[in-house]
Amino acid sequence: MPKLNIRNTRLEDIDALVRLQREVYPGIAAWQRQRAVQQIEIFPEGQLVAFYDNRLVGCASSLVIQWDEWADEHTWDQITAAGTFDTHDPAGYTLYGAEVFVAPRLRGKRVGHALYEARRRVCKALNLRRIIACGRLPGYHSLAHEMTAGLYARKVLWGDLTDPVLSFQLREGFRYCGIMKGYLVDDHESQGNAALIVWINPDYDASKPTALQLARTAAQEMPA
Questions:
Q1: pLDDT tens digit string along 57-86?
Q2: pTM exceeding the 0.90 threshold for the entire prediction
Q3: CATH topology classification for 4-221
Q4: Alpha-carbon dihedral 202, 79, 84, 166, rounded to 10 degrees
Q5: Where are the domains of the chain?
Q6: What is the pLDDT of residue 2?
Q7: How far apart (Å, rounded) are the C-alpha atoms in residues 165 and 170?
Protein backbone atom coordinates (compact mmCIF):
# COMPACT_ATOMS: atom_id res chain seq x y z
CA MET A 1 0.00 0.00 0.00
CA PRO A 2 1.44 3.43 -0.93
CA LYS A 3 2.73 5.50 1.98
CA LEU A 4 2.72 9.24 2.50
CA ASN A 5 6.07 10.72 3.49
CA ILE A 6 6.90 14.31 4.44
CA ARG A 7 10.48 15.58 4.46
CA ASN A 8 12.51 18.71 3.87
CA THR A 9 12.82 19.84 0.26
CA ARG A 10 16.05 18.94 -1.53
CA LEU A 11 17.61 20.45 -4.61
CA GLU A 12 16.80 17.33 -6.61
CA ASP A 13 13.09 17.86 -5.88
CA ILE A 14 12.86 21.26 -7.54
CA ASP A 15 12.08 20.26 -11.13
CA ALA A 16 9.20 18.03 -10.00
CA LEU A 17 8.04 20.71 -7.58
CA VAL A 18 7.85 23.37 -10.31
CA ARG A 19 5.96 20.97 -12.61
CA LEU A 20 3.46 20.23 -9.85
CA GLN A 21 2.94 23.92 -9.13
CA ARG A 22 2.13 24.55 -12.80
CA GLU A 23 -0.41 21.71 -12.65
CA VAL A 24 -2.07 23.06 -9.49
CA TYR A 25 -2.05 26.74 -10.51
CA PRO A 26 -2.25 26.87 -14.32
CA GLY A 27 -3.33 30.52 -14.25
CA ILE A 28 -0.58 31.74 -11.90
CA ALA A 29 3.09 32.06 -12.83
CA ALA A 30 5.12 29.18 -11.39
CA TRP A 31 8.35 29.57 -9.46
CA GLN A 32 11.60 29.73 -11.33
CA ARG A 33 14.13 27.08 -10.35
CA GLN A 34 16.54 29.60 -8.80
CA ARG A 35 13.81 30.95 -6.55
CA ALA A 36 13.21 27.50 -5.05
CA VAL A 37 16.96 26.98 -4.67
CA GLN A 38 17.25 30.24 -2.75
CA GLN A 39 14.37 29.29 -0.43
CA ILE A 40 16.19 26.10 0.51
CA GLU A 41 19.49 27.91 1.01
CA ILE A 42 17.96 30.63 3.20
CA PHE A 43 15.71 28.50 5.41
CA PRO A 44 15.98 24.75 4.74
CA GLU A 45 13.94 23.79 7.84
CA GLY A 46 10.89 25.60 6.49
CA GLN A 47 10.73 23.94 3.07
CA LEU A 48 8.73 20.71 2.98
CA VAL A 49 7.58 18.26 0.32
CA ALA A 50 5.14 15.35 0.39
CA PHE A 51 5.73 12.06 -1.41
CA TYR A 52 3.04 9.47 -2.10
CA ASP A 53 3.95 6.23 -3.82
CA ASN A 54 7.43 7.74 -4.40
CA ARG A 55 5.99 10.69 -6.34
CA LEU A 56 6.15 14.31 -5.24
CA VAL A 57 2.53 15.30 -4.57
CA GLY A 58 2.68 18.36 -2.32
CA CYS A 59 4.73 21.24 -1.01
CA ALA A 60 4.74 23.67 1.91
CA SER A 61 7.18 26.57 2.03
CA SER A 62 7.70 29.07 4.83
CA LEU A 63 10.02 31.71 6.24
CA VAL A 64 10.47 33.45 9.59
CA ILE A 65 9.52 37.10 10.01
CA GLN A 66 9.12 39.86 12.56
CA TRP A 67 5.33 40.00 12.39
CA ASP A 68 5.12 43.59 13.68
CA GLU A 69 6.68 44.71 10.41
CA TRP A 70 3.91 43.06 8.38
CA ALA A 71 0.83 43.29 10.62
CA ASP A 72 -0.78 45.86 8.31
CA GLU A 73 -2.00 44.95 4.85
CA HIS A 74 0.69 43.43 2.65
CA THR A 75 1.00 41.46 -0.55
CA TRP A 76 2.56 38.07 -1.15
CA ASP A 77 5.34 39.69 -3.17
CA GLN A 78 6.13 42.12 -0.36
CA ILE A 79 6.26 39.66 2.53
CA THR A 80 8.20 36.98 0.62
CA ALA A 81 10.35 39.38 -1.44
CA ALA A 82 8.72 37.98 -4.60
CA GLY A 83 9.36 34.44 -3.40
CA THR A 84 13.10 34.89 -2.87
CA PHE A 85 12.65 34.86 0.94
CA ASP A 86 15.11 37.71 1.30
CA THR A 87 12.72 38.94 4.02
CA HIS A 88 13.51 35.87 6.16
CA ASP A 89 14.59 37.10 9.60
CA PRO A 90 16.14 34.57 12.04
CA ALA A 91 15.44 37.01 14.86
CA GLY A 92 11.67 36.70 14.32
CA TYR A 93 9.08 34.76 16.28
CA THR A 94 6.58 34.08 13.49
CA LEU A 95 6.64 31.27 10.95
CA TYR A 96 4.99 32.65 7.83
CA GLY A 97 3.36 30.17 5.48
CA ALA A 98 4.23 31.32 1.98
CA GLU A 99 2.82 28.44 -0.02
CA VAL A 100 1.02 25.10 0.22
CA PHE A 101 -0.20 23.06 -2.72
CA VAL A 102 -1.23 19.45 -3.31
CA ALA A 103 -1.62 17.45 -6.51
CA PRO A 104 -5.30 17.52 -7.54
CA ARG A 105 -5.42 13.73 -7.89
CA LEU A 106 -4.35 13.32 -4.24
CA ARG A 107 -6.91 15.65 -2.68
CA GLY A 108 -8.85 13.77 -0.02
CA LYS A 109 -5.78 11.67 0.89
CA ARG A 110 -4.89 13.99 3.83
CA VAL A 111 -1.74 15.27 2.14
CA GLY A 112 -2.63 18.84 3.09
CA HIS A 113 -3.16 17.81 6.71
CA ALA A 114 0.22 16.05 6.78
CA LEU A 115 1.96 19.16 5.41
CA TYR A 116 0.22 21.41 7.95
CA GLU A 117 1.14 19.01 10.74
CA ALA A 118 4.77 19.00 9.60
CA ARG A 119 4.77 22.81 9.55
CA ARG A 120 3.42 22.83 13.12
CA ARG A 121 6.28 20.53 14.12
CA VAL A 122 8.76 23.00 12.61
CA CYS A 123 7.14 25.84 14.58
CA LYS A 124 7.40 23.86 17.82
CA ALA A 125 10.93 22.60 17.20
CA LEU A 126 12.17 26.15 16.60
CA ASN A 127 10.22 27.54 19.60
CA LEU A 128 8.39 30.06 17.44
CA ARG A 129 5.33 31.85 18.81
CA ARG A 130 2.91 31.22 15.95
CA ILE A 131 2.23 30.42 12.32
CA ILE A 132 0.64 33.12 10.20
CA ALA A 133 -0.48 32.74 6.61
CA CYS A 134 -2.76 34.34 4.04
CA GLY A 135 -4.90 31.65 2.48
CA ARG A 136 -6.64 31.73 -0.88
CA LEU A 137 -10.43 31.96 -1.14
CA PRO A 138 -10.99 29.92 -4.32
CA GLY A 139 -14.74 29.72 -3.83
CA TYR A 140 -15.21 33.46 -3.63
CA HIS A 141 -15.27 34.31 -7.36
CA SER A 142 -18.67 32.67 -7.89
CA LEU A 143 -20.22 34.87 -5.17
CA ALA A 144 -18.18 38.06 -5.58
CA HIS A 145 -21.12 39.78 -7.27
CA GLU A 146 -23.26 39.13 -4.18
CA MET A 147 -20.99 39.94 -1.23
CA THR A 148 -17.63 41.27 -0.08
CA ALA A 149 -14.74 38.93 0.60
CA GLY A 150 -15.09 39.72 4.30
CA LEU A 151 -18.73 38.61 4.37
CA TYR A 152 -17.86 35.52 2.33
CA ALA A 153 -15.20 34.55 4.89
CA ARG A 154 -17.57 35.17 7.80
CA LYS A 155 -20.20 32.96 6.18
CA VAL A 156 -17.57 30.21 5.95
CA LEU A 157 -16.87 30.67 9.67
CA TRP A 158 -20.59 30.54 10.45
CA GLY A 159 -21.02 27.33 8.46
CA ASP A 160 -23.27 28.90 5.81
CA LEU A 161 -20.65 28.35 3.09
CA THR A 162 -17.78 25.96 2.47
CA ASP A 163 -14.53 27.15 0.92
CA PRO A 164 -11.96 24.57 -0.27
CA VAL A 165 -9.10 26.36 1.50
CA LEU A 166 -10.49 28.39 4.40
CA SER A 167 -12.77 25.58 5.62
CA PHE A 168 -9.78 23.23 5.63
CA GLN A 169 -7.61 25.74 7.52
CA LEU A 170 -10.27 26.21 10.18
CA ARG A 171 -10.41 22.42 10.67
CA GLU A 172 -6.62 22.51 11.08
CA GLY A 173 -7.00 24.78 14.12
CA PHE A 174 -6.26 28.14 12.52
CA ARG A 175 -8.14 31.29 13.51
CA TYR A 176 -9.49 33.70 10.93
CA CYS A 177 -8.20 37.26 11.47
CA GLY A 178 -9.45 39.25 8.48
CA ILE A 179 -9.05 39.87 4.75
CA MET A 180 -5.90 40.96 2.96
CA LYS A 181 -6.98 42.79 -0.20
CA GLY A 182 -4.78 42.71 -3.28
CA TYR A 183 -2.65 39.95 -1.73
CA LEU A 184 -2.10 38.00 -4.94
CA VAL A 185 -3.47 39.91 -7.92
CA ASP A 186 -3.12 36.95 -10.30
CA ASP A 187 -5.44 34.84 -8.15
CA HIS A 188 -8.67 35.46 -10.04
CA GLU A 189 -10.63 32.80 -8.14
CA SER A 190 -10.02 34.74 -4.92
CA GLN A 191 -10.42 38.07 -6.72
CA GLY A 192 -7.00 39.00 -5.29
CA ASN A 193 -8.19 38.52 -1.70
CA ALA A 194 -6.73 36.27 0.98
CA ALA A 195 -7.83 35.23 4.46
CA LEU A 196 -5.33 36.14 7.17
CA ILE A 197 -5.10 33.18 9.57
CA VAL A 198 -3.03 32.32 12.66
CA TRP A 199 -2.13 29.23 14.69
CA ILE A 200 -0.68 29.79 18.17
CA ASN A 201 2.05 27.39 19.29
CA PRO A 202 0.85 25.92 22.61
CA ASP A 203 4.43 24.87 23.47
CA TYR A 204 6.03 28.27 22.92
CA ASP A 205 8.39 29.19 25.79
CA ALA A 206 8.78 32.96 26.00
CA SER A 207 11.59 32.57 28.55
CA LYS A 208 13.87 31.01 25.92
CA PRO A 209 15.22 32.32 22.62
CA THR A 210 14.14 30.59 19.45
CA ALA A 211 16.37 27.90 17.95
CA LEU A 212 17.25 30.23 15.08
CA GLN A 213 18.25 33.00 17.48
CA LEU A 214 20.47 30.55 19.39
CA ALA A 215 22.09 29.38 16.17
CA ARG A 216 22.76 32.94 15.04
CA THR A 217 24.32 33.86 18.40
CA ALA A 218 26.52 30.74 18.29
CA ALA A 219 27.68 31.59 14.76
CA GLN A 220 28.52 35.15 15.78
CA GLU A 221 30.61 33.91 18.73
CA MET A 222 32.68 31.51 16.65
CA PRO A 223 36.28 32.64 16.22
CA ALA A 224 37.16 34.07 12.83
A1: 999 999 999 988 777 789 999 999 999 999
A2: yes
A3: Aminopeptidase (3.40.630)
A4: 60
A5: 4-221
A6: 78
A7: 9
